[in-house]
Amino acid sequence: MSRESKKALGLLGAIAVLGVLAATFAWQTALRPNSLSRDGRFVLDTGLSLDSAITRLYEENRIRDTASFRRYLDWRGWNEDDGLRAGRYVIPEGLDNRTLARLLRSGSREAVRVRFNAHRLPEDLAERVAQQMGFDEEQLLSAMTDPLTAARHGTDVDRFRTRFIPNTYEVWYDLSAKDFVERMAREWRIWWSLERRARAEALGLTPEEVGILASIVKSETSRMDEAPTVAGLYLNRLEKGMRLQADPTLIYALGDFSIRRVLNVHRKTDSPYNTYKYEGLPPGPINFPEARYLEAVLSAEQHDYLFMCAKEDFSGYHAFAKTNREHERNARRYRKALDEQGVYK
Fold first, then answer.
1. CA–CA separation, 101 vs 103, rounded Å?
2. CA dist 290 to 214, 224, 245, 296, 332, Å?
3. Pairing outcome for strands 87-89 and 318-321
4. Cβ neighbours of residue 295 under 8 Å, at least 6 residues apart?
5. What's the pTM?
6. Are 284 and 162 in contact (CB under 8 A)?
7. Where are the alpha helices (DSSP H) in the chain?
8. Is the pLDDT of residue 341 over 50?
9. Could you tell me the CA-to-CA distances from 77 to 61, 71, 83, 98 in Å, in that order?
10. What is the pLDDT of residues 261-283, one digit of tens each?
11. pLDDT tens per residue across span 77-117
12. What is the full DSSP assignment across 24-43?
């Protein structure tokens, strides 16, 4: 064998040895235990850079060695474009770099239980939900009030708010704001079964109109045992072509939710939500009513009441009346009670 051939073989052998050493080092890096014990979930926010994610893992005491974890990612060629996936993860102790990386890239993330109550304004609901998800409040509010989204669901922006029924929903943490809105619309369609739609039709209402009326009933009473009575009263007024004259809709129009006493000057407000000025239901709901208020409307009590006034004992219940004369007597008692309490606005 010539000297040149021996040199070539020696070089190839050296390269092979180096390759084996490199591969061995890579696998040692891949299989090096790195994750640490830590209670709670690890959150990877949407849009977080790879370097920032690794830094957060270290700062939250989730891993002991950022360098080996980064080396493993580089070895696999995983970069910003195909790196770690946003979500909320449970990270067990003792995971090696390979298993940890696969976990944070696989989408095997933990579902979250998102809960929102009967908030008054879209801004309130967006703030509450965003606190539990990977998107921010502005993104959700924009998705909730997008005219194109509402039109795609066969309605307008005001009535589209009826799609958000307060409850607890299990979703992926990294769900986008738009997809969350679509999920709420899907849940709304599920809730509105054929049987419930038939009950709404029997009342002369669409599902959206039930939601709007339910929001008024909710604002009028927190006493569920009288909610069907309140619903029946407003249905009576709608049937007779009377203005609803619901104080909560006027307060919503004014945007001043500290008002406890509606005055004549308030009733002059020019807004489609002023049911003292305009007939029929307002354009949209004035809050996000729970399903029990939707059921209260669908199960509205049949009676002849046309008027209601808060009881003077401030119990949260109402005095109902069939005639304006009877109503005025009830209203005088309540106004007197407000005067005695020093409530003038």
1. 5
2. 8, 11, 23, 10, 32
3. unpaired
4. none
5. 0.75
6. yes
7. 3-30, 50-59, 66-76, 97-106, 122-130, 137-144, 147-152, 157-160, 177-191, 194-202, 207-220, 227-240, 247-254, 264-267, 291-298, 324-341
8. yes
9. 25, 10, 9, 13
10. 676 777 888 899 999 999 999 99
11. 877 666 677 777 878 888 887 888 888 877 656 678 899 98
12. HHHHHHHT-B-B---SS-EE
CA distance 96 to 49: 22
Torsion of CA 284, 285, 291, 296, to 10 degrees: -100
- For residues 106 and 119, the model is more confident at 119
Tokens linked to 345 = 């606005």
d(CA 89, CA 110): 5
Tens digit of each residue's pLDDT (9 = 90 or more) over 181-225: 999 999 999 999 999 999 999 999 999 999 999 999 999 999 999
The encoded tokens of residue 156 equal 């307008």
Mean pLDDT of 66-75: 84
- Residue of 180, 233, 214 lying closest to 206 (CA atoms): 214
Q: How many residues does the chain have?
A: 345
